[in-house]
Amino acid sequence: MGIRFDAIGIFVGNIKKMVAFYRDVLGLDIDWNEEGPHAEFKHEGIRVMMYERKLLPGYLGTEVSFPTGLNGTFELAIDLPLFSDVDKEFERVVGLGAQPIVSPRNEPWGMRTSYVADPEGNLIEIGSWGKGEPKSV
């Protein structure tokens, strides 16, 4: 039996602000009553969960540390069908408040990519491998 990841958890400082960003800017569906330390988004294939940082040491029984500023420890990646979708989505989410980090660009490995950050500095890659691009004749 192989390992299959079921969820990604993000430990957040301000759960209401972060839920609002992922719901209103990125467009993820959520079932959350705006109370409690845990929120979970409904998403195809993998769950995205949030939990308040201040409660984590008590839950784990040990002290923990968190990055400050731009978080370079992980990224969430969005894969879009068309290269042109990268530019459109980048502009859309930046217009709604995402922090622009890397404007859309073509990478030498054949991907079009860009980066934004959420309100707490977590990196979100908006990219495409061009799988939906029309075949040239």
From TrEMBL:
It comes from the Bacteria. Residues 4-129 form the VOC domain. It holds the Pfam family Glyoxalase. PANTHER family: BLR0126 PROTEIN, BLR2520 PROTEIN. This is VOC family protein.
